[in-house]
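Complex 289.
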Amino acid sequence: MQIGCHGSVWTGQFDTAGVQLAIAKTAEAGFDLIEIPLMDPDQADLSAVRRALASSGLAVTASLGLSEHTDVSSDDPVVVAAGEHLLNRCLEALSEIGGTHLVGVIYSAMRKYMTPATPLNRKHSIEAIRRLADRAAELGIRLGVEVVNRYESNLLNTSRQAVAYVEETGTDNLIVHLDTYHMNIEEPDMFTPVLTAGSRLGYVHIGESHRGYLGSGTVDFDSFFRALATVQYDGPIVFESFSSAIVHPDLSNMLGIWRNLWTDGEDLGRHANSFIRNQLATVSSIQMH
Ligand code: MN
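Predicted structure with manganese (II) ion bound:
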């Protein structure tokens, strides 16, 4: 099982120097994997990133949220095509650096919608994601749809919805991506959604209720990790945290990161790495399966 860290713990800039810094810091904090936000796949020199990854020994994944201009659930086929084009470029960039998973809000825009998703929105999204999952399979990359809260998408807010969506695509290369921060807002508890996703669960984000230090908010991590053990989850587990101390202009504003939850990313990262490993050690000691 790989324990990872989202790049936004270290920097808001994902040009070559920013990614290199994030890789070095992630390895230093004891993680196995780095997740790079890939809002712009042409921002960094991919061969330099590949070399930095090789010398760090880290595995790599990437994530993004689509914008209103690249929303694959849009009514407008031109916008859908733009989204599909961007995601294909992300897949190629990730393949160049040896990445294993492309995840996030890739099935709609990552924003507050003012109306519910229509059947046409859902159809456009599923058709595009089905094609992308096939392309990802050719590159040896798994594609994951991240279940997020109602203020960040109108399409997938619960594990149950994500399972239905994935089943509708009919592809095995599409996985459910759960995030404890979002689950804490939308789900009935932290245990059953993991069982609902079952073997379709392929990617996990660990975030606290206010996106700060793990254990300092209201997320019931004990139940969540017991559920992971129950379904014998063995995919990546990635720590995600945001503070206004580290600002990526698009991402921070979209996610509503207005407060300073922490200033010392190194301390936060080391703490999260040991928090996650301790939770896994605890559940494995009681042999849930
Ligand atoms: Mn997340």
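The mean pLDDT is 96.
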